[in-house]
Amino acid sequence: MENVCGINHVTLSVKDLERSVAFYSDLLGFEVWMRKGHSAYLEAGTFWLALVVDENVRSGPLPEYTHLALSVSKDGLPVLKEKLLRAGVAEWQESERAGSFYFLDPDGHKLELHSGTLAERLTMRER
């Protein structure tokens, strides 16, 4: 029997492709591999992100907790958090832990910078 072995890629609908490519590449450090027509492919580490222009994209964050967590080193988290705050990025939730920062992309997708591992999270939940 075959099982899923990971996430292949995530596709986000965006209103303005150039604005979103700049956000993910300039602020978060994604590498832009392709930008053509109404889509772009970016990569951070082994994470592949597709951005696609969609006239039905949200106009703000959804009320639910669903979000995408992006890995960052423990040392890099405060630096990247400060960079995002200086750029005027909105927080959607204050973090109870030092290893997370919750923020919105230009289309209101909920994102998190996270510096922890699954093992660390499980240990914390056992306490």
Automatic annotation (TrEMBL):
Origin superkingdom: Bacteria
Oxidoreductase is among the record's keywords: yes
Short name of one Pfam family: Glyoxalase
InterPro entries for the chain: Fosfomycin_Res_Enzymes, Glyas_Bleomycin-R_OHBP_Dase, Glyas_Fos-R_dOase_dom, Glyoxalase_1_CS, VOC_core
Keywords, comma-separated and alphabetical: Dioxygenase, Metal-binding, Oxidoreductase
Annotated VOC domain residues: 6-116
GO MF, any single term: lactoylglutathione lyase activity
Record-linked PANTHER family: FOSFOMYCIN RESISTANCE PROTEIN FOSX (PTHR36113:SF6), LYASE, PUTATIVE-RELATED-RELATED (PTHR36113)
Full protein name: Glyoxalase/bleomycin resistance protein/dioxygenase
Organism expressing this protein natively: Pedosphaera parvula (strain Ellin514)
